[in-house]
Specification:
The protein is of the alpha/beta class. The chain has a single domain (2-147), classed as YqgF/RNase H-like domain (Nucleotidyltransferase, domain 5). The protein has five helices and five strands; from the N terminus they run βββαβαβααα. It has helices at 40-52, 72-88, 100-110, 115-118, 122-147; strands at residues 2-8, 12-18, 25-32, 55-62, 92-96. A five-stranded mixed beta sheet has the order 3-2-1-4-5, with helices on both faces. β2 (12-18) and β3 (25-32) form a beta hairpin. The chain is globular and about 50 Å long. The mean pLDDT is 86.
């Protein structure tokens, strides 16, 4: 069971994928576009990746505000969710992504990655955090069911 994780941004989409057992998330790539509303190629690439990895689902980071409200970015993400579902035919699960990009930036800083080099991979790292959070949630649910 492979799952794809997405970190949707204004001009980039970070992509991660789970291992076949659904335990760990690994980076795949960052899809870039010139304008925020130009999504045709982005959606086509996500579909290609979903097919190549034989994904069963997609986890999409939902950027809620710290007070749990939905801002402009979250509304755009909900629209993107619909487009990805329509294009791929896969369920797109929303996952709270608050502070994932900040956490990714801190990890890269602590790893000694220079500021100018962080842009190339920060979205992939954020996608890993989103997907890994979801995979950990699934594992905890499974463990709770096994104990019943």
């Amino acid at each position: 069971m492979r799952i794809i994780g997405l970190d949707y941004g204004e001009k980039t989409v970070g992509v991660a994928v789970s291992d076949a057992l659904g335990w760990t998330a690994q980076p795949v790539e960052t899809i870039t576009r010139k304008e925020e509303n130009k999504l045709r190629r982005t959606l086509a690439r996500i579909q290609e990746l979903a097919e190549a990895y034989e994904a069963e689902a997609i986890v999409l980071g939902l950027p809620k505000m710290m007070n749990n409200s939905m801002g402009d970015r979250a509304e755009k993400t909900l629209e993107f969710q619909k487009q990805v579902e329509k294009r791929t035919g896969l369920p797109v699960i929303l996952w709270d992504e608050r502070l994932t990009t900040r956490s990714a930036d801190l990890v890269l800083q602590e790893s000694g990655v220079r500021r100018e080099n962080r842009k190339a991979c920060i979205d992939q790292i954020a996608a890993i955090f989103i997907l890994q959070g979801y995979l950990d949630h699934l594992a905890m649910e499974q463990k709770a069911q096994d104990q019943e």
